[in-house]
């Protein structure tokens, strides 16, 4: 593979607040050659996800940071282009975690073979992959929706939020979405069938949300934090469940956070209204993945779950697209078409 070049995007600098293009650098190096027991992957599609913002910081989290100069981490759909591994043949398509680059070596660990005849392979990065599973596990295991209850979720046109609302409806609950902008609002209401949708960029979010949740909120699937949480909190019913999945409004904030400390007030409400507030990382529910694949494939097949992808072209476009996602500029599961394969 001497003549094949690997293009990769590395972390050039740790962001100060919101990431900027100069925090990334594109490099070109010779593509690696597989040794005995290894395969060479050509990346077809790269997934861009909010968690990558956390990996850009040095701070300790639930996963190790990307080193400065290291290849940005990320889930991919890739094609086996050379194999010295008995379990993989050239031409096979796999789900991998090979990062922001065009080629990568693998010893097969953690790869999942994908069947293009079963579903578009890109869905393994979205509705039938980690984000869809996050919605499924967080909503069903922590939220435990019951018929007639009200479920609220923000980032509702994205891969996690869109699945949360649609699964809530399948379970007989009322789904209320929060989105940024009129296009997303129309999509979530008209195409995904949420019962109500509000725009967090329009004036009076608390008033709008109150109008959309006349019987209060039984489950708030927390994706964003910030001003959305402030609008949700007074509407939470006794025994509300709050799966804390993400806080994207805060990912680029170093703190201390502005405004008065509202923690004592919040804890009083947690106590007196018997809230269940539980953070989670999706892999904690790994034992539920087989049920997820079965249920979600069925719901997609019978049209009860729909999804939208937002595909940008070329690895070079990844930094700008990623920065845009943190500001709500993506519309659906954000993917980068890295190569045609
Ligand atoms: N715990 C886990 O294991 C786990 C796994 C996967 C994802 N997550 C989390 O789940 C959340 C959703 O992920 P996703 O992949 O589905 O992302 P996504 O919806 O594709 O993209 C993020 C969306 O967040 C919204 N947003 C950004 N800043 C906001 C703000 N200040 N206020 C309100 N909304 C804001 C934007 O949508 P609008 O334009 O509609 O506002 C943006 O499009 C993220 O917090 C992510 O970190 C957690």
UniProtKB/TrEMBL annotation:
The residue ranges of the Enoyl reductase (ER) domain are: 19-336
Keywords (A to Z) from UniProt: Oxidoreductase
Q: Which residue stretches, if any, does this entry annotate as coiled coil?
A: none
Q: Supply the Gene3D superfamilies for this chain.
A: Medium-chain alcohol dehydrogenases, catalytic domain, NAD(P)-binding Rossmann-like Domain
Oxidoreductase is among the record's keywords: yes
Name of the featured protein:
NADPH-dependent curcumin reductase CurA
Taxonomy of the source species: Bacteria, Pseudomonadati, Pseudomonadota, Alphaproteobacteria, Hyphomicrobiales
């Amino acid at each position: 593979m001497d003549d094949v070049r690997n293009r990769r995007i590395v972390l050039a600098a740790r962001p100060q607040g919101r990431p900027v293009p100069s925090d990334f650098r594109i490099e070109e190096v010779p593509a690696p050659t597989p040794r005995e027991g290894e395969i060479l992957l050509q990346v077809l599609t790269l997934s861009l996800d909010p968690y990558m913002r956390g990996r850009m910081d040095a701070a300790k989290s639930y996963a190790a940071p990307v080193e400065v100069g290291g290849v940005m981490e990320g889930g991919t759909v890739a094609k086996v282009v050379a194999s010295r591994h008995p379990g993989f043949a050239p031409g096979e398509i796999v789900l991998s975690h090979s990062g922001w680059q065009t080629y990568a070596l693998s010893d097969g660990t953690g790869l999942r073979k994908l069947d293009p005849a079963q579903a578009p392979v890109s869905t393994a990065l979205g509705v039938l992959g980690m984000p869809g599973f996050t919605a499924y596990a967080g909503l069903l295991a922590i939220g435990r929706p019951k018929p007639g209850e009200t479920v609220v979720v923000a980032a509702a046109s994205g891969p996690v939020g869109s699945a949360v609302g649609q699964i809530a409806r399948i379970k007989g609950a009322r789904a209320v979405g929060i989105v940024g902008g009129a296009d997303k609002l129309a999509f979530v209401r008209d195409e995904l069938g949420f019962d109500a949708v509000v725009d967090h960029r329009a004036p009076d979010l608390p008033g709008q949300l109150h109008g959309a949740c006349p019987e209060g909120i039984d489950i708030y699937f927390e994706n964003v934090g910030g001003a959305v949480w402030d609008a949700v909190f007074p509407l939470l019913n006794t025994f509300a469940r709050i799966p804390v999945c993400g806080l994207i409004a805060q990912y680029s904030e170093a703190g201390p956070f502005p405004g008065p400390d509202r923690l004592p007030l919040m804890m009083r409400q947690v106590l007196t209204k018997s809230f269940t507030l539980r953070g989670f990382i999706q892999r904690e529910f790994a034992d539920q993945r087989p049920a997820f694949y079965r249920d979600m494939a069925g719901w997609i097949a019978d049209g009860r779950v729909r999804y939208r992808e937002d595909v940008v072209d070329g690895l070079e476009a990844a930094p700008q697209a990623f920065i845009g996602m943190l500001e709500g500029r993506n519309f659906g599961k954000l993917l980068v078409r890295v190569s045609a394969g």
